[in-house]
Amino acid sequence: MFRPMFAVSDAQTAAIRGAFDEGGEFSAAVELRRIFPAVTDNATAREYARVIAGRDPPPPPAPPARPALHEVVPLHATQDHPAGRG
Question: What domain range includes position 26?
């Protein structure tokens, strides 16, 4: 897949970093799209903004918490189970 390349000036980099620091990733993507109107995809703009701002991508969302599993206790005491001894 061909990915276009473009040059970013120091002033443009400062504007994108400033937007990132003040408003986060989405603000930086908006600023990038303002400077480079040919970047029309928000996901791509966010990726480019992260690269220009020198930031890591956000971590993936945590999986939903599962309820704790409870110990299974036999209904009848057996020789093999501690409750059956004694």
Answer: 10-53
**Taking a C-beta distance cutoff of 8 angstroms, is the pair 20, 53 a contact?**
yes
User: What phi, psi does 61 have (nearest 5°)?
Assistant: -65, 145
The total number of structural domains that make up the chain: 1
pLDDT, averaged across the chain = 82
Q: Work out the pLDDT band at 78, boundaries 50, 70, 90.
A: low
Confidence of residue 66 (pLDDT cuts 50, 70, 90): confident
Query: What does the DSSP assignment read for the chain?
Result: ---------HHHHHHHHHHHHHH-HHHHHHHHHHH-TT---HHHHHHHHHHHHT-PPPPPPPPPPPPPPPPP--SS--TTSGGG--
